[in-house]
Amino acid sequence: MVYAANGDTGFSIVFEVVDDTSNPNTYKVTVATTTFGPFPMSTAPAAIGTMPSATVAWTVLWGHKAGAQWHVSSTNEVTPPGLEEHRACGGVGRCDVFSGVCTCPYGAEGPSCGKLFTTDETINDALPVSVLTADSLQYAGDILQMRAKRSRSSDFNFISVSEAANAPLMVLSGDGHLRSRSIQGDMGATVLSGGLFVGGGGGTILSGGLNVVEGHVSAAHTTFNEDVLSAHSHEATFQNALLKLSADRAASDAFRIIDVVVDRSGAATRLMQLLGNGQLEVVSGPLVASSAEGAWVTGTGGLHVTAGGATLQAGTTIESTDATASALSVGMAHPTFTGTGINVVATQAAQATFKFAEVTASGTAQAVLTHHGDGRLQVHRGGIETTGGLTVTTGGIAVAAGLSEFDSGIDVTGGGMTVSSGGLAVSTGGTVLANADLANAHVLRSSATALTAGHRVVSVESDTKATTSADHALLWAGSQDGAGVMTERLKLTAAGVLSVTGHIHLSAKRPSVVATSDVSLTGAQCGAVVAAGSAAAGAAPIVVTLPQQLGTEAAGCFVTVVVAETAREVQIRNGQTIGALYGKWPYFEGGTYKQGSIQTTGFLTSGGGTGIALGIPTGADSFLATVTLSAITGLPLGSNVWYVTEGHGPWASTAF
C-alpha cells in the first residue's frame, strides 16, 4: 500500500482488510472516529473518505488476511499490521511516495510490480506472499502452469527459490530435476521410476524405517575413515535384531546369506561367506575370538576343520558335558594317511621345566599321567597295560618298586634292565637267560656287596618235597655241540645227588667240597685214561695218562683206581695232581712232585660200618686215589665210596 497525504497533518488513519475471499480484497478506512467503506482494493490512487487530499493505492490486490490493519499518521506509517507485512512496490520496485508510482525492475510489471517472473513480495509476516486460488468447486485445470518453448535443458530453471543471500534453497531445473535442501512430506514420497538419487547430505528417516520391496540395497563409500553401513538402536531395553537377513528359499548351500569380498575392482578375494544352510566359511584369513569367553560351539555337530588345521595361541580347553561322548577325538579319514595325528611342538629345547601333556582326574587334584618336556613319561596311577609287550631299545628299565604282571613278557633289545630295589620275582614260567655276545663272558652273574649270617648269593629252592627221583633236578647244566645236541654236564637232584659229566677244577688251598653222601667219580671224567700194567700182586705199576689237549686243566681231576690188597705203585703223567699210595712214594712224569701217602689212623665207625682213614698232605693238589680193600671184613668189595674231612689239606678221604 502506498499512502499520500499531500502535506496534510494532524490526523490518524487506520486501513483494515474486511474480506480476504473476494478478488480483489476489500478494505475499510477509519479517520479519527469515522469509518468509510468497504472499498475494493485498487492499484490506482483513490481518495480516502472525505479527505480529497489523501489517496491510497494497493500494490497487491488479493492474498491479504481479514483483520489486517495499517496505522498511519500524516505521511508516516506508525504501526505496521500485526498479521501481514506491507512492502511497497512488491518489495522489488522503488516507490515514489509523492506520486505513488512504482518503478519496477527487469522481470516485474504492473502498477505495484505485482506481475513478476519472480515474486518477492511480503505484505504480512504471517500471510502468503502469493496465493493462487481456483474458486470453482469443479475446477480440474492447472492452478499454476509454467511453460517454456525451449526444449528441456538444465541451462534454465522453472522454479528457483533462494534466501536473502541468494543461496538456492530449491530449484526445479528445465530438465525436470528438483534440487532442494530438504524435502518433508506427511504422506511419504513415491518414486515411480528412475530411483531416488541423493547427491549429498545422505538420507535420514526419523521414523517408519526403510522398506525395499523389490531390487537391492547398495552402499558405496569413498571416505576412508567412515563406516559404509551402520545400524544402531537407541533403545536401552532393545531385544530384537539390529540386522536381520531372511530368505523365502529353503536352507541350501546353493546361495549365500553373507558374502565378504575385498579388492572387488581387482582380483576380488573372498574372505568369508555364510551359506544358505547356515555354514559359516572363512575362506581367507583367520577366525579370531578375542573375548574372554572365547569361541563356543554348542551344536551337536561340533567343530569341523577340513583343511589348514587349527592354531590356538593362548591354550586350549576342551570340556565335555556329555556323559558318554569323547571330549576329544582325532581321526585320520584319508585312506592313505601318512602324517601325524597329534603333533606337540615346543619352541624351547627339551627340558624338564615344562610339560608336553598332563592328564588329571577330579580337576587338578589327582595327576594320572604326565609327559615332561625332557621326554620322560610319568604314570602316577594305574600303571601301564599293553597287549603288544614292551620294547626298550636303549637305556634299559629302572624299576624302584619291583616288576609284576607281565603276561606277554618283556622284550629288552638294548640297554639291559636295572632293578634298583624290590628284586625280580618270576612266579610262573621260569627264567631263560641267553647270551650271544662273545665279549661278555657272563650269562648269569650274581654278586653281593654285603652278606650276613644266613644270607646266600645264589639260592636254589624247590617248593615240592624232596624226592630221590633223578628227573627232579634242583640244578642242571648242559652244553650244546656243533650239531645242536644238548648234553647234560651237571645235575643236582632234589635228593642231594650231584652228578658231573667232565672234570671239576678246584683251586682253593682250603677244603673246597664237603660230600655228605655217595659220590661216584670215574677216570672217564678226565678224558681218555690209559691203564698200563695190572692191579694184581707183583704186577707192573698202573699208569694213568691224561690227554695232552687238557693241558693244565687236567690238574685237579678225580681218578678212581681199584687195586688189590697188595700195595701197588700208581703213576700220573702230564698233570699237576698228586697220587696217593699205600705206604709208597708216588711217581710223576711231567707233573708237579709232591709227597703223598695213605694214612691208616685206625678204624672208623660210621652208621654201623668200619673203615680206614686215607689222607693227602697239606698243600697237595686236588687228586684222590680211592683204594678198595678186599681183606677187610664188612667192607663190600669194589666200593668207590669216600668221605671228605677238613683235617688233612685240601682233600682228606676216609673210606667207610
Automatic annotation (TrEMBL):
<protein>
    <recommendedName>
        <fullName>EGF-like domain-containing protein</fullName>
    </recommendedName>
</protein>
<dbReference type="InterPro" id="IPR002049">
    <property type="entry name" value="LE_dom"/>
</dbReference>
